[in-house]
């Protein structure tokens, strides 16, 4: 018997209303025995950019052939397209709203289809819960071994660009906030191209200045803001013994300006 493919779920559904449980139930009914891993279900509601960061931050640690199902879908029930994208290592199923942009900026797109074939949906499709009625059953059928090509017409996708910004050796650059993590750290899309972290930097965000670049959180003085390169290789702003997001009130998409001095 052919083994089924691993499914990884990412949503903004939370864990208090049964939405995730419904999706997992649909998968179990169609593809019993499929292993399902929950990436996260507490993505800030209706924030595809936050979801894009979380997906990008974990996908490379999964085995080849994983089916990633990402549902942060404020446009559910509208004309927005549902995409199934095959890259060199994985499959990604998500609404076309930027949720896949960070991943696809790093991955080679092999083929992509617009998911339209209702044969692989639940019989009754709600206008407000495509996670249960479209994404979950389609993922389950993919786990069972169907080809992408039966899901709908192939489409041409341009590889997204501009997701991450390499800061210059000297001068200024403007990036953006990608995510606020559980600890209140403000994660940006800024990174050093050469891995050189010993630089005299000044970061401006919401008219607050954060000076200097630290190696660890512990190096920042208690109660002070500091910048460092986090585990994802991106520059983030932290508050020692607190939450930077409680001091600098921003959300995903906010602009961040960095100045590099010689």
The CATH architecture of the largest domain would be: 3-Layer(aba) Sandwich
Q: Quick one: overall form?
A: elongated
Distinct helical segment count:
5
Number of domains: 2
H/E element sequence: EHEHEEEHEHEEEEEEEEEHE
Radius of gyration: 20 Å
Low-confidence stretches: none
Output the structural class.
alpha/beta
How would a textbook summarize the main sheet? 8 strands, mixed
Beta-strand segment tally: 16
Helix content: 10-25%
Any idea what the CATH superfamily of the largest domain is called?
S-adenosyl-l-methionine hydroxide adenosyltransferase, N-terminal
Percent range for β-strand residues: 25-35%
Q: What is the CATH top level name of the largest domain?
A: Alpha Beta
Q: Mean pLDDT across all residues, rounded?
A: 95
Structure description:
The structure is a single chain. With 262 residues, this protein is of the alpha/beta class. It has two domains: 144 residues, Rossmann fold, CATH 3.40.50; 97 residues, Elongation Factor Tu (Ef-tu), domain 3 (Beta Barrel). It is 18% helix and 31% strand. The strands form three sheets. Strands 12-11-16-8-9-15-14-13 form an eight-stranded mixed β-sheet. β14 and β15 form a beta hairpin. α1 packs parallel to α4. It is elongated and about 60 Å long. The model has no long low-confidence stretch (mean pLDDT 95).
């Amino acid at each position: 018997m052919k083994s089924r493919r691993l499914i990884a779920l990412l949503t903004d559904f939370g864990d208090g209303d049964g939405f995730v449980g419904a999706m997992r139930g649909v998968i179990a009914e169609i593809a019993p025995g499929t292993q399902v891993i929950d990436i996260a279900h507490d993505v800030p509601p209706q924030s595809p950019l936050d979801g894009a960061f979380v997906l990008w931050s974990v996908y490379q640690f999964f085995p080849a052939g994983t089916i990633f199902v990402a549902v942060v879908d404020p446009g559910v029930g509208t004309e927005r397209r549902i995409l199934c994208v095959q890259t060199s290592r994985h499959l990604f199923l998500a609404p076309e709203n930027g949720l896949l942009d960070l991943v696809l900026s790093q991955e080679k797109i092999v083929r992509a289809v617009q998911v339209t074939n209702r044969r692989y949906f639940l019989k009754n499709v709600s206008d407000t819960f495509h996670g249960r009625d479209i994404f979950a059953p389609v993922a389950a059928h993919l786990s069972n071994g169907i080809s992408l090509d039966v899901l709908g017409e192939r489409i041409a996708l341009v590889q997204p660009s501009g997701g991450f910004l390499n800061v210059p050796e000297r001068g200024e650059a403007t990036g953006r906030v990608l995510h606020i993590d559980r600890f209140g750290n403000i994660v940006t899309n800024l990174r050093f191209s050469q891995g050189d972290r010993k630089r005299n930097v000044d970061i401006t965000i919401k008219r607050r200045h954060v000076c200097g670049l630290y190696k660890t959180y512990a190096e920042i003085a208690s109660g002070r803001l500091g910048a460092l390169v986090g585990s994802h290789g991106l520059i983030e702003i932290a508050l020692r013994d607190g939450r930077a997001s409680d001091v600098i009130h921003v959300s995903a998409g906010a602009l961040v300006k960095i100045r590099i001095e010689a």
